[in-house]
């Protein structure tokens, strides 16, 4: 064994001991990144609108918003509700430089896709992080989710499409609800024609205005079906 092999093996053993054999939340020894007890603290988005995945009290076909104005995307898939532990993990990942905390949520999302037998398009793009957030954090969490998901669901090769921000507005969480709802497709653009079926990846869907703006931009570039995949969904 060479010295470089030895150090690589040592590094991976240390990494496994530190991170992979312990629950990220309660730190007990565990095979996965989240133990069953901590997983039970996550709220599954069981009852929701079949189109925008907005959480509802009872199972319903379409929520009032989707009935009033059909969105530009075909469907949002979001297996978790953005509350409690799920919210805490995403917040820490985004704002406290702990990207690894998204791993258990990505694993649950991948499992959800497999359990439900959902066939995803092969062309993937991510909601791009604003330039301001990228400068502050130094990473794009949606790209991280995209890479992790494609590794978990590696049955088909994934082609990445680059969606870009035209107007680099401030991050969604710093804006009022009204400002978010007026987010226009002009905020996003794509330089080339895109395939007919696209999967758009985001971390959370809040008002749905970013999903709508991105879907509009993708449709203008030639997409016929836009499926949104997010880790979690808020109620409004
Ligand atoms: Zn735990
Ligand atoms: Zn809806």
TrEMBL record:
> Its family?
Belongs to the ComF/GntX family.
Name of the protein this chain belongs to: Predicted amidophosphoribosyltransferases
Q: Which residues cross the membrane?
A: none
A molecular-function term among this protein's GO annotations: glycosyltransferase activity
| UniProt keyword Isomerase present | no
Keywords of the record: Glycosyltransferase, Transferase
Classification via CDD domains: PRTases_typeI (cd06223)
